[in-house]
Amino acid sequence: MTAMTSTHTPPVSLHTPVIGWFEQHARDLPWRRPEAGAWGVMVSEFMLQQTPVNRVLPVYEQWMARWPRPADLAADAPGEAVRAWGRLGYPRRALRLHGAAQAITERHGGDVPSEHGQLLALPGIGEYTAAAVASFAYGQRHAVLDTNVRRVFARAASGIQYPPNATTAAERKLARALLPDEDARAARWAAATMELGALVCTAKNEDCGRCPIAEQCAWRLAGKPAHQGAPRRGQTYAGTDRQVRGRLLAVLRESVAPVPQAALDSVWEEPVQRARALDGLVADGLVEPLAGGRYRLPLT
């Protein structure tokens, strides 16, 4: 695996062009609007994990209309969160968001906490999400390292095409070194680098002609050397247990009454894989088995 190296470009020279580009080109997304609040930011961060914006937008709008505050979601059954999650994928995120809403209601009077440590203590909240909410919702200074930001830093500062598969200590150190000193500017930088990776410095088709820091990019200046690290993980879906789980959940989401085993058996022909997928859904708390071979989304 190619090691991340420290940047030779003065961080301050990157801040102004990247933030300036963001001010002109940032997408108008509902969770970026003031009325979204910290809860809207948190919901978006859960939904956007491994899921593109265009798929998230309609589900986000429906979610926020139904549950505009954490207490609204906490008062509903966790199965309703799974139902409303629709086909976003990785539905355990819905249960984790429901659990976070319950904790926010119980521990923080229904308001998403602003302190990074309190955010990190919520169920289902990891380092990335805590930093993102603290930064985007409360304008704090944190290194926010999602896939897009990591790729921008890998190319612009470290001279490699792709970051390692898992976030490293070297990447975190580099991200902290690149942070502007002032809180509000650091929060803007976090959003700007994320947008740059999403729109310009993409994984497959980087558009250096539109990049505000192309002249300083270590990877471009090195002649864009090909990736030498560990093979990049693919996103295989067809025929996997994930696909089977999705089909089983789709049947349960569409029914308000418990579903008989036969209805689930009809969506996937191979019985061993189907049973394994159903067992996994039960173990993950996404499906509740009932007497008589029936199943439903969880009520508690």
UniProtKB/TrEMBL annotation:
Q: Which residues form the HhH-GPD domain?
A: 47-199
Which UniProt key words apply to this protein?
Answer: 4Fe-4S, DNA damage, DNA repair, Glycosidase, Hydrolase, Iron, Iron-sulfur, Metal-binding
Task: Tell whether NADP is among the UniProt keywords.
Answer: no
Gene3D superfamilies, alphabetically? Helix-hairpin-Helix base-excision DNA repair enzymes (C-terminal) (1.10.1670.10), Hypothetical protein, domain 2 (1.10.340.30)
- Is Membrane found in the keyword set? no
Task: State the superkingdom.
Answer: Bacteria
Q: By its UniProt entry, which Pfam families does this protein fall under?
A: EndIII_4Fe-2S, HhH-GPD
Cofactor(s) essential for the protein: [4Fe-4S] cluster
InterPro entries per the record?
A: DNA_glycosylase (IPR011257), Endonuclease-III-like_CS2 (IPR004036), Endonuclease3_FeS-loop_motif (IPR003651), HhH-GPD_domain (IPR003265), HhH_base_excis_C (IPR023170), MIG/MutY (IPR044298)
As for family, the record states: Belongs to the Nth/MutY family.
Which PANTHER family does this one have? ADENINE DNA GLYCOSYLASE
- Protein's recorded name: A/G-specific adenine glycosylase
Q: Which organism is it from?
A: Streptomyces salyersiae
